[in-house]
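Possible race condition, two jobs.
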Amino acid sequence: MIEKTFRVSETHDICQLDAASLTEAYREGRLSPVEVATATLDRAEQVQSQLSAFTFLDREGALSAARAAETRWRDGVPRSAIDGVPTTLKDIVHVANWSVRYGSRVTEDLPFGDDAPAVAGLRDAGAVFIGQTTMPEFGWKAVTDSALCGITSNPWNADVTPGGSSGGAAVAAACGAGVLHLGTDGGGSIRIPASFTGTVGHKPTFGRIPAYPPSAFGTVAHIGPMTRTVGDAIIMLTAMARRDTRDWTQPPMAFPNLTASAMSWTGKRIGYWKTPIVGAVCPGVACAIEAVLDDLETAGAEIHEVALPYREDLLEVFYRHWYVGAANRLSTIPLAARTALEPGFLDAAEIGERYSAVDRMWAEGRRAQYGAAMDGLLIDFAFIMSPTVPILPFAAGRDVPDGSGLKSWVEWSSFSFPINLSQQPACSVPCGFTPDGLPIGLQIIGARGDDAGVLSAALAYEQLYPNRFLTPGRTWPKLMGERNRS
């Protein structure tokens, strides 16, 4: 057999490539998984030094996995379409031989023996794990800072937050420190940082990706892909989606398949969810979303303004789920260790402890009514679209924007947390920038089980606005000392 010769490319260009481009280059012998892993790790170290997106980088493990992938590609037997593709994992999922700290100083720095199901799916597909990304303590809020890892900053402006709780994953994606990024979403924690960093974040239908061990926050918590392009989100979701009997909350039957392709907008009925549960939409965000809807109407879609059912109850319904989840997590922490916990997390848990069983069951009942009404709404509409977040990225290290009058992160995430309650698939795609250069996200919501439909809509959107996505040849966030290659 004639051994292929791999051509070295410029490091930053390598880090801008999507999974399909990388695996095509592997197949043709123009790039090697080892070369790509090395470039990605170098990029990740630069990102870490400036933006604090990682809890650690596993150079030795990543290069070992990349060498194995290189051998498979040379032998013509790759495991999948992501074999050898650099991937990051949030510091909340179990990874064999890695510790998981949940963003907290009170957890033990001890390695786990087994992969979580989603991680196992990626490993089986040949993904190269380069490191673990940052999150707030136990993922309790929608920004990313912790006493364990400090403040994670937004690459478009280091003074503002990238959102959270999957903020480290979003920053890594936006900077090219990996291609595929595993995030989790209990109230917007994939979609919010995707919006704030100009990347793609998909919260799948609940149960499509198995969750084990179970989340302390219960059935509002989802696992999903964070990427730079819609195609990469599809390919990553496909690798993670599987049946795992350890997750009792998964349905026992298979979900509809994930085959997705760009669709026509002609005749599609789209509900425009215009008003958040709390507060108002920033004018710049509203203008960006409505410009897209105008274009979709020109392309043949029918746009109708919609209001969420039971909207007056949804904030309290979510609080009773989320705060009781925080109390549940607190119950596993020894009393002597609690002085090291973040005060905000403790406050949330203490509120949760004050709810009665009747309070929680009221929330379960209202959630069931709301979820059924949302299922009905998505019979009448192909999709619902909204801003992903009603506000713009704000100062890093804050839970709410200064001077906003908002009491908690939940209030400014009120385009996202209702879709955790209803368990529907929702994808955030980049919707342009403010005059100050901060990203805006558009949210596409579909019927339960219809991840393929949501991702097909996202692909069609990407075809309409290719320059909004982080691909080679367009402007990327610039780190200190990096020359402009755009």
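Job #2 (started ~2 s after job #1):
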Amino acid sequence: MKKFGPGLLIAAAFIGPGTVATASKAGASFGFTLLWALLFSIFATIVLQEMAARLGLVTAKGLAEAVNDSFKTKQAQLLSTFLIVAAIGLGNAAYQTGNIAGAALGISAVVDISSSLASALIALLAFVLLASGQYKVIEKALIALVLLMSMVFLTTLFWVSPDWAGIAAGLFTPSIPDGATLLVIALIGTTVVPYNLFLHASSVSKTYSEAGSDNIDAALRHSRWDTGLSISFGGLITLAIIATSATAFFGQSEDFNPAALAQQLEPLLGAGAKYCFAAGMLAAGLTSAIAAPLAAAYAVCGAFNWSTDFSSTRFRAVWFTVLVCGAGFAIAGTKPLAAIIFAQAANGLLLPLIAIFLIVAMNQEKILGRYKNGPLANILGGFVVAVVSALGLFKLYSVF
């Protein structure tokens, strides 16, 4: 555990209801065919989150502040501010709907209450935790629950003995079957979450704030280990979810539905599967419901050069707005699975914009010095942007 740091929070943030629902839908609908998209998304996440962590460590600033510092003209700074606020505000509002709806799905699985009431209770609990400032203690317990559910999925994966040759073929044979484009984008969007780039940079800048200039290199090595291990673990969990869903549901004639998600755990847990699933979805949803508004507050306040102190009125106003927007759609009865997958797809479409801003900031010698991107980092980052942009443009073309 000494190798882990802020990266574990990032992994827990993307192992939320979106990951469980989207990965389950991908496995149920297309078997192992879309595993290559997961492999790419893990690679892309490690590349981009390493940059965000390095930025926060070296500059002791968040991503939004660094982006503003990267542009020389006032017009360019205003444009970047507008795009960051629009992208993160829109993306997190949609994502928050999925977080709350997913956590409510966990409650509804074991308690006979309406999804609207369950969503209201989740939103209220997230508000209390954020407003009290004591969310960090609760967050550790929630991460532990998410990791417990993750280990159950991994154990179940080996218990059900999936087609390992099919898994290997799906990982290394890219293809997009008819009707799968949105799910491919959603798989990428549920892993390479744009708001996590802002959250990672800010959390790393605070975690390593005591590191002086003489030990930045050591802290950077630790941060890279933390990022690589945490995100790889998260990717393994997502693979387990896709594989168990594919083994359980692929090829069945009936439509996949959220209530069937817990059935993935039945080979291991029997009748207790729905209770473990409910606890995991509740923990995953609530953890993400706390992280998304916080990341939005860091991004928006950083873009406007406002204080990012947790007690700041503006900081509180931003996370409260995102929380209310997400809660409103969830309470209105937005279907959980539809809301979650839409949020992941929206994240996938927004990702190229945020990734470009990150790469621009990472090439500024005046703020990063010798820690700026080298040619290899730029090539890898450019490849990620190109692939995600191509998928997004293809989806927009198919829509219109």
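The chain has a mean pLDDT of 81.
Logs attached separately.
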